[in-house]
């Protein structure tokens, strides 16, 4: 079942029926950036997928099949069992590895319904590797369109549709929420089509002046209106023999919609004030984030625009693509500077502004890292008013990036609250303080008095050496073993020359 020219090599079994989705695990984040985007796909129901450091093997186009391999992943397997109704249960390994689902640490078996996997579930192992557990409706394919990034079913289907649209001259209507990449898709259709060597002429219909929209699109004869001292060439004439992309078509002025309909029906149009018609030879692509079935838009024009319709998926429907998108936007060197915990929050967020919003958030994160600050999720993403994000969600693919909670008095917190906050945030004081709704200095004082949390400089050096060796040099895991904050421990390790 392997075609090296079109699909990834996967340990794929035949599903029970053609309508049954395939269960997939996609590597969203890994310390080795070459592993990000690799997938394991299976169609077997009833049998457990045993996920450990050594199995199963994940594959990426053009690369070998490899297991997760990271030392922070347990040798003992986490078992993933799919039932006959396409529900999936997660059975924790008999190990000390921290397992999180959508930002919530798991302590017992968890069951997920089929529709929850449709949204994608973010699984964090050992606070070092992120996986997305999701459905695939098609086999993985090699990406031959570098601008349209993604490894999941939605991204593959989009690329297939773009290729089909490029193979003909029908009008194309691109539908999708703001920021989903409609202009990128339009450019890909043009680049793959017969007119690739010609121009792609782009017009923002929302920016057209209603009184001059006709002249802007179709041109005008000399003297056609006040100030028209010479013949004016319109966008349709500019795009003769090329591709005309009408972005934000839902905002087309009402007066030009019948003219657009005439062009689409017969190819003819008349410049403003001209004595005779001209024939348009432009290939038309339009895009909108609006519902054009509304009465305000010319329905006959809509039917003509719908020659070939492509619905672009929102980012929340393709969480499995988050890792490859981050590397595509930032590059491997910059992208790998992001903390794994932050990437997990980014992957779980619903992104109402989609890829455009993600790009801006990633750019802010890099600016903060360059300034020596640790970017926090709520500093990168403005949460909607009224959104409660103080606690991790239930496993449902919803927001897992916690914004700061309302400030709480230290007297309101138990010793267990403080200990759990440190443990859940990789023993990082800044993140734990944020989750508790207090300042770092306040949390420092509470840590000093906590009976179960140790000061790094009060721990015997031999014990620190043993914990560091058991953690294979991972400071966060070492801090968890010693039950001490990560930042002071890191400074002490440098002082003791135990850390390069």
Automatic annotation (TrEMBL):
Q: Where is each Sigma-54 factor interaction domain found?
A: 148-367
Domain of life where this protein originates: Bacteria
Q: What is this protein called?
A: Sigma-54-dependent Fis family transcriptional regulator
Q: Which SUPFAM superfamilies match?
A: P-loop containing nucleoside triphosphate hydrolases (SSF52540)
| Cited SMART domains | AAA (SM00382)
Which residue ranges does the record annotate as region Disordered?
A: 386-411
InterPro entries documented for this protein: AAA+_ATPase, AAA_lid_NorR, HTH_Fis, P-loop_NTPase, Sigma_54_int, Sigma_54_int_dom_CS
What CDD domains does the entry give? AAA
């Amino acid at each position: 079942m392997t075609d090296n020219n079109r699909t990834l090599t996967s340990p794929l079994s035949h599903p029970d029926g053609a309508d049954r989705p395939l269960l997939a695990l996609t590597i969203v984040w890994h310390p080795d950036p070459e592993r990000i985007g690799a997938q394991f796909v299976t169609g077997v129901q009833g049998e457990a997928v045993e996920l450990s450091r050594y199995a199963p093997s994940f594959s990426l186009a053009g690369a070998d099949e490899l297991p997760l391999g990271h030392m922070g992943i347990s040798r003992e397997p986490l078992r993933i069992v799919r039932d006959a109704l396409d529900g999936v249960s997660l059975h924790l390994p008999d190990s000390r590895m921290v397992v999180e689902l959508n930002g919530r640490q798991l302590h017992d078996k968890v069951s997920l319904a089929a529709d929850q996997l449709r949204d994608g579930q973010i699984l964090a192992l050992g606070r070092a590797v992120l996986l997305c557990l999701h459905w695939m409706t098609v086999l993985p394919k090699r990406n031959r369109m570098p601008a349209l990034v993604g490894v999941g079913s939605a991204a593959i289907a989009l690329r297939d549709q773009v290729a089909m649209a490029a193979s003909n001259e029908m009008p194309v209507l691109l539908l999708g929420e703001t920021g989903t990449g409609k202009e990128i898709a339009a450019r890909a259709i043009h680049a793959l089509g017969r007119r690739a060597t010609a121009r792609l002429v782009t017009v923002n219909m929302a920016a057209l002046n209603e009184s001059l929209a006709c002249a802007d699109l179709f041109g005008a004869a000399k003297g056609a209106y006040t100030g028209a001292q010479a013949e004016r060439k319109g966008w349709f004439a500019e795009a003769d023999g090329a591709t005309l992309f009408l972005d934000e078509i839902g905002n087309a002025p009402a007066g030009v919609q019948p003219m657009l309909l005439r062009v689409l029906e017969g190819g003819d149009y008349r410049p403003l004030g001209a004595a005779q018609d001209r024939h348009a030879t432009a290939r038309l692509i339009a895009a909108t984030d609006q519902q054009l079935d509304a009465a305000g838009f010319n329905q006959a024009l809509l039917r003509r625009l719908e020659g070939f319709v492509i619905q672009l998926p929102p980012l929340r429907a393709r969480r499995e693509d988050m890792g490859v998108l981050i590397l595509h936007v930032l590059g491997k060197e910059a992208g790998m500077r992001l903390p794994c915990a932050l990437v997990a929050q980014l992957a779980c967020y619903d992104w109402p502004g989609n890829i455009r919003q993600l790009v801006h958030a990633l750019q802010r994160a890099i600016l903060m890292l360059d300034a020596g600050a640790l970017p926090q999720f709520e500093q990168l993403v403005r949460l909607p008013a009224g959104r409660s994000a103080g606690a991790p969600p239930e496993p449902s693919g919803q927001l897992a990036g916690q914004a700061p909670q309302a400030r709480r008095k230290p007297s309101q917190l138990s010793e267990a609250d403080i200990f759990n906050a440190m443990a859940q945030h990789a023993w990082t004081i800044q993140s734990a303080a944020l989750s508790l709704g207090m300042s770092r200095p306040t949390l420092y004082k509470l840590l000093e008095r906590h009976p179960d949390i140790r000061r790094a400089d009060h721990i015997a050096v031999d014990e620190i050496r043993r914990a560091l060796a058991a953690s294979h040099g991972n400071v966060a895991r070492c801090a968890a073993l010693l039950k001490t904050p990560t930042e002071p421990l890191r400074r002490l390790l440098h002082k003791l020359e135990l850390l390069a």
